[in-house]
């Protein structure tokens, strides 16, 4: 946003909270966020097309506000089993936002555990005029081209287990190749030592002709 100050245009940033309220009321998503297909298994993800400084409002998780019982019923009837767009939160009791039937960008943002370098935003509950909204804010500077990822807040998500398995396999593989490498190195040193020792032993020539003395 720009404001006139002493005849010059000075940049005046509104607070992320006010920006969030403004964007939520407008019913629009930020143009600088792009929904892109990652692959058929993972589905879509959301990418920044401009830099976002830490604290910036990014997007609202838009959907139908329903009670948990209704959410449970819908989950049972859900046709696509591997993906859920239900987001549970606490506000005057447990509530849920079901984003299944919307094409707004918030629902396409993927999960990433807090502590991972790929985790770059955080979901916050924003209550304006007694109306709860779920909003994502940058928890560090985000560069253009980065994928947005926040912690869904659940520990046993299947893709996290896959990551753990891959890390485990990589460590085991690294360890085994390192052990093999170390053994090879040791064998090489041993071979060189043996060779050196062999060199020190006088060469055993066959007795030369004419110099042979029989002991008999
Ligand atoms: C709220 S949706 C996110 C958007 C989803 N990718 C899509 O195209 O609809 C949650 C689903 O995305 C996938 N997902 C989210 N985070 C993921 C991650 N870190 N790795 C792999 N798949 C993930 C899972 O299938 C999950 O059920």
Automatic annotation (TrEMBL):
Q: GO CC: one term?
A: polytene chromosome
Gene3D superfamilies from the entry?
Answer: SET domain
Q: Which residues form a coiled coil?
A: none
Q: Which domain of life is it from?
A: Eukaryota
**All copies of domain SET, residue ranges:** 33-153
**Family annotation (InterPro entries):** KMT5A, SET_dom, SET_dom_sf
Can you name this protein? SET domain-containing protein
Species whose genome carries this gene = Magallana gigas
């Amino acid at each position: 946003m720009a404001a006139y100050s002493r005849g010059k245009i000075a940049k005046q940033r509104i607070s992320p909270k006010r920006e969030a309220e403004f964007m939520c009321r407008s019913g629009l998503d930020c143009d600088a966020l792009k929904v892109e297909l990652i692959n058929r298994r993972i589905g879509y993800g959301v990418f920044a097309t401009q830099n976002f400084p830490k604290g910036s409002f990014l997007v609202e998780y838009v959907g139908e506000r329903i009670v948990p019982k209704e959410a449970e019923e819908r989950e049972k009837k859900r046709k696509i089993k591997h993906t859920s767009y239900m987001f549970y939160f606490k506000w005057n009791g447990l509530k849920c936002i079901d984003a299944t039937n919307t094409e707004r960008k918030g629902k396409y943002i993927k999960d990433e555990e807090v502590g991972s370098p790929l985790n770059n935003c955080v979901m916050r509950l924003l209550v304006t005029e007694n109306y709860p909204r779920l909003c994502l804010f940058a928890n560090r500077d985000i560069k253009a081209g980065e994928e947005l990822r926040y912690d869904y807040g659940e520990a046993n998500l299947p893709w996290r287990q896959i990551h753990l398995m891959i890390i485990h396999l990589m460590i085991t593989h690294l360890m085994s190749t390192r052990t093999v490498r170390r053994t090879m190195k040791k064998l090489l040193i041993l071979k060189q030592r043996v060779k050196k020792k062999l060199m020190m032993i006088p060469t055993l020539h066959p007795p030369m002709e004419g110099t042979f003395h029989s002991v008999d």
